Predict the structure of ATP-dependent DNA helicase PIF1.
Amino acid sequence: MASNRKDTSTQEWTSQGSAPVPETPGVSGTDRESTSSVFKDVVINGETYQYIEGCGLPPMLSAHLNQQQAQEQQSSGSSSLDAENVETVAIEQERQEEEEEDDDDGDSDTFLDAKEHLDSDLYSDDGFGDDLPDSVLTSTTLWNALPAEDDYMDHLSDFGEDDIASQTSDSKDLQDNFDDALLESIADEEYLSDEITSSQVHDSSTAPTGDFGIELDEDPSVVELIEAAFADDEFLEDTPTKVTDQNQKDVIVIDADDNTAPGPSSVVLGKRKAEPEPLHRQKPVHPSFGEGSQRFPVELDSDDYGEDIDLLAFKEIHESAPPSHNSTSKTELQQVIEVPSSGESAAASSSSTSQDRLTNIERLYRYRQQRKENSTRPESTMSQPMSRQGSEISLGRTPSQSQDLPDQSGGMIWGTGSLSPEIAPQNAPLGYTSDASSRYSDEDPPPPYEVEDEEDDPLRPRMTPPDPTKTAEGLTLSPDQLFVLDQVVTHNRSVFFTGSAGTGKSVLLRELIVRLRQKYSRWAPPGRNYWDSTAAEKVAVTASTGIAACNIGGCTLHSFAGIGLGNEQEDVLIRKVYSSRKTVGRWRKACVLIVDEVSMVDAVLLDKLEAIARSVRKRPMEAWGGLQVVLTGDFFQLPPVDKSGKARFCFEAASWKSSIHVTIQLEQVFRQKDQTFADMLNEVRIGQMQHSTIERFQILTRPLPEADGLKPTDLFPLRRQVEEANGAELRALTSESLFFVARDSGPQKEKLEQQCVAPTKLELKVGAQVMLLRNQNGGIGGLVNGSIGIVVEYTRRPADNVRLGSDDKPLPSLNSYGELLPRIRFMLEGGRSSEMVVGREEWSMELPDGEVVARRVQIPLCLAWSLSIHKAQGQTLTKVRVDLAKVFEKGQAYVALSRATSLEGLQVLNFHPQKVMVHPKVVTFYENLCREKERALASQSQANGDQASAASSSRRS
Ligand SMILES: Nc1ncnc2c1ncn2[C@@H]1O[C@H](COP(=O)(O)OP(=O)(O)OP(=O)(O)O)[C@@H](O)[C@H]1O
């Protein structure tokens, strides 16, 4: 990154040996008024910022201040800063002078380089330094919290293990004990663990140098920014982006993804070293972030710290600081931690002596110890989550307890439950009731959080959709789709939802992901459709195959689980998972595990994963260790891939029944409007075709007319056949080739070749037939994944959806013609056409904790004269040609035929009943489901009848 302009304060700052040393950072979050002796205000450009006294101003803020001061001096001849600001600057200068005397021990070069890099970039002319928004606030604590040593992570004791490094000095022992106790308490209490994790227990390591904070009170918007920044260890290579938040304020976001919520008045700067992040070592957060910031105090247990203790503790360890640190600050800093007890004056806290602060550490440590000893409380009480009943806190049921729901259908609940009133449709089908007192209402598992005040309920949906029966894409959900949403989102049930092709499983799944993330989002401003990274960790989005995972923006089930190929024995796999703190963290942080295309998951794998979940989540008696699972797919479609041919369907797994509370079969077919065609496909699906159906398919051999140069898309079972067919069509075009080569990155980028829908190398010519691989403009205008079009020309119009590079320069071009992008004419429904320039997009294989294992930048197109049936699964095509001659796998014929939207748009070659292969186990599985559904409906109508006759007899009497 170029640096054309340097700020003096930046230079001073970066010339120091380590991060500046805060002198009095401990502060209570309980009473902001009374902490005024610690927090200082400074007014810059009319905005008031707070900083911690003694920490000094962060470089960007001081630069602003200096600049403002200079301007004001120029204009008025004297400083117009108020007395407090003058004092602030004086303190800052004094502190910097002091710290200049401290020599760099040379160990933190990386950090300093990074800081310098960042500083200079922020102030460079070609960066956005000139555009620094008025509302920028730099987190002093964050700067201070950045690790200054490369190897400090090694000192971290692993979560739940006893091998905490022994320490020598008393204070160090104390500190470690504190860490130990804190971590153990997290490990012991699953829900507390979640809470603490999401509340950012920061940097509880034994850092040899540098400062860090433990904070249980936060500004979620800022956390989100920080998480976004730290999610990518190399984030400094990403240009911070300036965006406008919902208050029309400028905000700088580093590494902002689509799902990153820019918070008000925030900027996050810093660098974390590229080492695996241990459990519960989250990102440091400044406790105070200016106007507009939100605070979400975190309750631990109501009996933990007395009433209403808003625990906010910052601690710094400096005993191992370089010898050049001056002894006074070291002594001070060794002992800084504030854990104020209830009723204790925060003012007193803030002015407490070092000894007082030491006592606070002891107090917290003793408290933890006492809690451990206090295991006289029944285990179930300690680990049970608290559910919110009105404004009361009451003990609720754990999710696992919902297994013994009044479920008369052997683990299945068919659409006979009540919908929550807020999403009950007007035209609720048989089985739905609008009665708010659902038959399950008193059995519902509670949110896995203790909630005292609704405002603080992290599970409270932050955004109520304007119409809860509509999807984010604007589709109106069917009653069955709504029922699934209700069961999953409102009632926290583990669900398997299935249905024939085109019944809207994918649409529903996408909506489920949105709503679950909103539910688990700690902060989502009204009217915005994004969530924070906490939600991303809590809602693990996976699929059985890479292509399916890419389609829903998740990762493969194998990647989530951290089991590699997963072929080893269960105990070996469990050890493998335990060997990675990140993987363990993923398993433990997740509240919901979503698996798409579950028909391709093998029974053995499902059992292994379920066992891993129970072990890693430390709840051996609960299915999936208490994890809510949401599985979807159609077992009549593609089966598990297994070369040995021994793969079993996952519904045959021992754990299947205990995993699923509710099974729902979606019945309304959306893809095919023609009921005759839908019925024909249903017969193909179950492999029981009438003669008339067979004949109808056999006469569909006529060629389909070309319209606007578009040919029907050929579906082949093998990739080789697809490549040959597309290659032949491309060669037939006389126009010049233009190559678009994907840019891949990430440690597992080799997986992209197989698993990413976007091609590694795309050769295009004017006239080439292509398919869109991503919805454009949110699908508005009809340009959706699966839309087919033709390359009309190339253009230089910048249509990229990918952020520019770290130096604000465009990414190197993907094609040999520089920045040329294809203009495509897409054919839309109703014979309309629409032209657009298709820009590059990004696919990433991401683990739920945000780790990007592979990333591809490519234009979202593939050649579409032909597609593999595998790739076509999930697509909707208006003109399809299916040749069943080479079909070899069960479900393949059905997947291929069911891509078509109409009989008019379908050409079928070599149709023979034998080519329609269905696995008998799948037939039996679905027959059982239907029987169970009928039984459930019968028992419900019986119950309704009983009720009605009881009501009429009571009226008569
Ligand atoms: N509630 C709805 N209202 C209107 N259209 C819908 C609805 N749900 C789904 N659709 C449409 O139906 C078509 C098929 O939907 P979707 O791809 O979700 O089905 P699916 O069950 O996942 O199919 P497959 O099993 O073949 O992948 C899509 O064009 C989608 O837009």
The longest strand covers residues 788-795. The mean pLDDT is 60. The pocket of adenosine-5'-triphosphate is lined by residues 475-478, 481, 499, 501-507, 634, 670-671, 874, 876, 898 (CB under 6 Å).
